[in-house]
Specification:
With 538 residues, the protein is of the alpha/beta class. It contains 18 helices and 17 strands. The strands form six sheets. A five-stranded mixed beta sheet has the order 2-1-3-4-5, with helices on both faces. Helix 6 crosses helix 10. The radius of gyration is 33 Å and the shape is elongated. The C terminus is likely disordered.
């Protein structure tokens, strides 16, 4: 008599949780109990069941064979560790007629695997070999798939309705927010994470730091990335590619481009192709669901728009993470493409990238020294200022503008949290030493705990020191005025060309082959472009 090693496979999809009382027999617990009873009945009628294993897929659709439990089942069957698959009914294994047909009529027979469905329809490929291919099984498979299709339509309609009225339908709230207690459709501000979001926008939009510089700063301060942060809060968010807890340029960019921080509910960026194909595809922006005023904003509209304009420039940072003053603004006047910044031993210059990369057929050879270009641009800016009718009034406003003091509460809270975590790590080490001294744990176990604790303590001390330095540097930065503002207060002129000045005042700069420079100001009168080009001739 053949020995049977049985896998009892149970599955419950999310839609099955909403069934009526009569259909609750499909629960994981009841499926398991029923299949165990069936295995006992196999033994009672003389079949030799050598062993069995329960494998579960909870919250997984039957239209997808990539579900984790089902893949475990197939792996064990392929290894020949088990040779019988038992389900309570066909829909627990398959809600896709093509998958059902493949496994029942091809895969299982080819690999000598016994398949049993105890109901809807009854199948036993060993005792009743033809049962897997009868018409009733095919009809039941079609019925199960139709049920999956109908359910998919209902769920999509329900989600679309919730999106239209601005209710949140995601499994996890965006970084900076929590789901409202008692109402998971609404978002509330998560203050510790929201402070980090505000810092990111400030560093990028106000301090004009590059994405790479922001990434380094976040990681040096020991701030966990969004995935690790949610894990630390007890949420079971997983990254299929793994997660080291560190920030990346892409994670910072996602925050800078997410309109949810303006108080808008933005959903429907992606959609599943259909109920059979579970891959997601991007949705055109015009088809997104955007509802304003659904929750509190974290950043202002002005800051957000400034960040978008900076991102649109697509500027590369230097080797030290700094962005050069005219990055994204400076273009070749002949081909209208960006110019490249080059460094020699004696000076820095800009040249046409098109000519350098593609040759003279596509653009003319021309370049300009950085010092000469900066002086020209600065003079043009200062000339524009002299044309203002109320220049003296502007200078008086700058001199008397109230000083802004920062709110360091977020940084101080992070220091307190890190200090508490450090105290906890010290307590863990102390308890481990006590257990070692009293013979409760071995010397090897104690050494392992000591290594982990010391590593974590050093990390936390570094985080605390970094956060403390950040508060000091922020205070110094607020107390100090930019050099160019000092110059402006003295005589109404800027003395240094900076990235912030160039971004705020200039739309574009074109350098032509005849060494002339055209400056397009964001605020200029129609004659100013012409004037700037004439005055900037070198």
């Amino acid at each position: 008599m053949k020995d049977w090693n049985v896998i009892a496979y149970v599955r419950l999809s999310d839609e099955d949780r909403d069934k009526t009382e009569d259909e609750k027999s499909r629960s994981i617990e009841n499926q398991t109990k029923y299949l165990e009873q069936y295995i006992e009945s196999m033994k009672a009628r003389g079949e030799n069941v050598a062993g069995y294993k329960i494998i579960c897929d909870d919250g997984k659709t039957g239209t997808d064979t990539k579900r984790s439990g089902f893949r475990e089942v197939m792996g064990l069957l392929m290894k020949k560790e088990y040779n019988c698959l038992l389900v309570s009914d066909l829909s627990r294994g398959f809600r896709n007629i093509s998958d059902q047909t493949y496994y029942l009529e091809e895969y299982f027979p080819l690999h000598d695997i016994r398949f049993i469905s105890t109901s809807l329809q009854y199948v036993d490929s060993f005792l009743l070999p033809q049962s897997a291919m009868n018409l009733g099984v095919k009809i039941q498979g079609i019925t199960n798939e139709q049920f999956a299709y109908d359910t998919s339509i209902k769920i999509r309609s329900k989600f679309d309705m919730k999106r239209r009225i601005g209710e949140f339908i995601g499994a996890f709230a965006p970084f900076g927010y929590d789901k409202q207690l008692g109402n998971s459709d609404a978002l509330v501000v998560d203050n510790p994470a929201a402070d980090i979001v505000r810092d990111i926008f400030k560093w990028y939009a106000d301090d004009l730091m590059s994405l790479g510089a922001i990434v380094r700063k976040l990681n040096e301060l020991g701030i966990p990335n969004p995935t690790k942060y949610k894990n630390q809060k007890g949420l079971n968010l997983k990254n299929p590619k793994g997660n080291d807890g560190l920030w990346s340029a892409s994670s910072v960019r996602r925050i800078l481009t997410n309109e949810v921080y303006l108080g808008k509910m933005v959903q429907g960026r992606e959609e599943v192709i259909n109920y059979k194909i579970h891959k997601a595809r991007r949705v055109p922006r015009e088809n997104w669901y955007v509802v304003s005023g659904t929750h509190d904003a974290i950043v202002s509209g002005e800051t957000f728009e400034r960040a978008q304009r900076l991102l649109d420039l697509n500027v590369r940072a230097g080797s030290k993470g700094n962005v050069f003053p005219l990055g994204g603004i400076l273009k070749c006047g002949e081909c209208k493409k960006a110019m490249s910044r080059k460094t020699t031993r004696d000076y820095v210059y800009y040249c046409c990238r098109t000519y350098r990369e593609k040759g003279k057929r596509f653009c003319k050879a021309h370049s300009i020294r950085e010092e000469m270009l900066f002086n020209t641009v600065l003079e043009a800016i200062n000339f524009q200022i002299t044309q203002m009718d109320d220049l003296q009034a502007l200078i008086r406003r700058v001199k008397t503008a109230p000083k802004k003091f920062g709110d360091y509460g977020g940084l101080e809270d992070r220091i307190k949290s890190s200090e508490q975590e450090l105290r906890n790590e010290i307590s863990v080490f102390d308890r481990a030493y006590y257990d070692y001294a009293n013979g409760i744990i071995s010397g090897r176990q104690f050494e392992r705990i000591r290594e982990i604790c010391e590593k974590r303590q050093n990390e936390l001390k570094g985080v605390i020191e970094g956060l403390s330095n950040e508060i000091k540097m922020s205070a110094i930065a607020e107390d100090a005025k930019p050099v160019y503002m000092d110059d402006f207060q003295k005589d109404g002129r800027f003395g240094e060309l900076t990235r912030g000045m160039a971004f705020d005042l200039i739309e574009s700069i074109y350098v032509y082959a005849d060494k002339s420079v055209e400056i397009n100001f964001k605020f200029a009168d129609p004659y100013c472009v012409y004037f700037s080009r004439r005055q900037a001739r070198l």
